Amino acid sequence: MTEAAVCPVMHERDHPLQPPVGFAEAVSDGPVKMLWPNGVEAWVVSSYAGVRQVLSDPRFSTRKGGHPEMRTDEGEPVVDADQPGNINGIDGEAHMRLRRPLARGFMVKRMNELRPRIQQIVDEHLDVMEAKGAPADLVGSLCLPLPSLVIAELLGVPPEHQELFQATAREMFGKNGSKDEYIAHATKLGEVLSPIVAEKKAAGTNDDMIGLMANDTDFSMQELIFLCIGLLAAGHETTSNFLGLFTLHLFEQPDQLEILRRDPSRADVIVEELMRYTVGQLGGVGITRRATEDVEVDGVLIKAGDWVSVSLLANLDEELCPRAEELDLERDAVSHLGFGFGPHQCLGANLARAELQIGLRSLFTRFPNLRPAVQVTEMSYRNDMITYGAAAIPVVW
Amino acid sequence: MPGSVTVRIDQTGCIGSGQCVLAAPDVFDQSDDDGLGIVLIPEPSADLLPGVRDAVERCPAQVVSLEE
Ligand code: HEM
Ligand code: SF4
After folding, report:
1. Residue A33 lies in a domain
2. ipTM score
3. Angle, vertex CA A387, rays to CA A189 and CA A113, nearest 5
4. Is any ligand 1 atom within 6 A of the Cβ of residue A386?
5. For chain B, what is the domain count?
6. Which of A73, A172, A186, A259 could form a disulfide with A329 if both were Cys (CB 3.0 to 4.6 A apart)?
7. Of all helices (H) and strands (E), which one includes residue A65?
8. Quick one: signal sequence residues (chain A) (predicted)?
9. pLDDT reading at A175 higher than 80
10. Domain CATH code at residue B14
């Protein structure tokens, strides 16, 4: 009927912290079909109710395989559709079998027990930053090492393999990741992980994630290794980018920064609002499903077999909260979709929350005069991954 | 009025996300055995209801219910 509009997968933005140009206008009238640069068409759903529906209705499958992904070329997906342990690519009972045992490792209680250690890591990094003196790059000084160290400790993997985790994550979450490179890195990571898993099995301990998976589940070695790779990768790129983006939004809106400075003890509520707003402003389309039956979403019939990509512009929908387009750090936490919704909602959400709350609060308590050393619009941003963020954030204090 | 509302979790669909605990920490917890959501106060008093409603809205698996 209508020609599919071209999806702005390339993240062309007028302003680095605002949605891709013309995107909100293009998708605001309900589900629209968009054409991915690799020739695949997908519906884009961006209303609050529509996104919740797509992400929680079992008639939408998360099984990947030839899906639009974020690729801008014709290359094949990096991860096979049948990859054992691909928690984000399977549905129903098979998904629950992987997800349930992991949930125990990420319980709210457990994440709260980690807080003193997270605080210690943050303090050590801010000490180093202060000692070296201004200007500093916030990404290298705090945003990247914090989640990287925390996830390695939580899994029980020595931090000296950080480079390898990051290289693997780059291919896995890179828009046009290379399958060959990915396999090469993942194989090496598998060689690092196998003896650690064997050691935990022999010791019978379950006090870290690898121990828990090795001893308290029926996961195969192949599943376990892939899950570890996934957790290491998912565990640092996203959190790191968001800590940076939160700081940049606060630099751009000094009245809001003042609210955090005035009452840093509200960091938990403040992080929820920053999450809602930042994810909404990114707007992009990164979460994909496929209809297994005909389903109506926001009054539009989506046919069995059609791809659907949800846009988290939904976080700026008035149906979620009043004045949804504004960042308002005084508002109570609302039920935003920054960590997704439905059975695949982010496994690491409570960990990410703890890191972002402690990181942000400590940063502005320690350096009350922290400010960007160059204009936020002059900084360089990374577009090469499915997660978006600043490559470097030069700051002074 | 105690007894006029009932809070339930249908554990078959629960993914142990802990959103209910964040929304209403007095009413919900996660089991130490499996991380799944549990109801601590099945008939909460009126002052706890806003948190419970928030949990109903936030539960990603949509398995928290409030019968009034
Ligand atoms: C600010 C930081 C983070 C954001 C914004 C974020 C966002 C998301 C979103 C939106 C999803 C849902 C994807 C879908 O529905 O297909 C997801 C899933 C997931 N996230 Fe996160 N995440 C963050 C941090 C983390 C951390 C720290 C970890 C690991 C420790 C993690 C591990 C995962 C895993 C394993 C899944 C797949 C869950 C499943 O499919 O059942 N994430 N994340
Ligand atoms: S919010 Fe829902 S899915 Fe998460 S632990 Fe509570 S009941 Fe389970």
Report:
1. yes
2. 0.94
3. 65
4. no
5. 1
6. A259
7. none
8. none
9. no
10. 3.30.70.20
